[in-house]
Amino acid sequence: MGRTIIIIFLCTVVEGEIGKHSFISIKKTWLEAQSYCRLYYTDLSFVSSQSDQDMVVQAAGGKDPTGWIGLYRDPDNTTAWMWSGGGIITYQNWDSGEPNNFFGKESCVTIVFDGKWNDATETRSFPFYSAKVKLGLS
């Protein structure tokens, strides 16, 4: 007599959403800011739309919004940009003339006073934006 084996696959969908962007006024280099965000939040903030951009800038609470976000230049392709948490850039909000990779040393990105983006040297110290991502099962 033969045996019938039934295999049941359970599929779970994991959904993620940005729960909150926080503006951290402590000045750190990009790598220090990334480490801080990964320790206390999820990662440096990422921006995939104008509404994301607005939420990030609002996190500064009316202060000068200049600060690191999670965007950095791909070391294997200097014309490509990637997010700290993974993924390629799909939305851009560069300031006029940016990114310019001044002296070939600007590999990370800040939001500047008008909410636009500027590439900057990763060893400079700026405040930064952290994102807290909420994951849920559905």
From TrEMBL:
Family matches, as Pfam families: Lectin_C
Keywords attached to this entry: Signal
C-type lectin domain segment(s): 23-131
Gene3D superfamilies for this protein: Mannose-Binding Protein A, subunit A
Residues in coiled coil: none
PANTHER family: C-TYPE LECTIN DOMAIN FAMILY 20 MEMBER A-RELATED
Protein name: C-type lectin domain-containing protein
Originating species: Mastacembelus armatus
Lineage, uppermost ranks: Eukaryota, Metazoa, Chordata, Craniata, Vertebrata
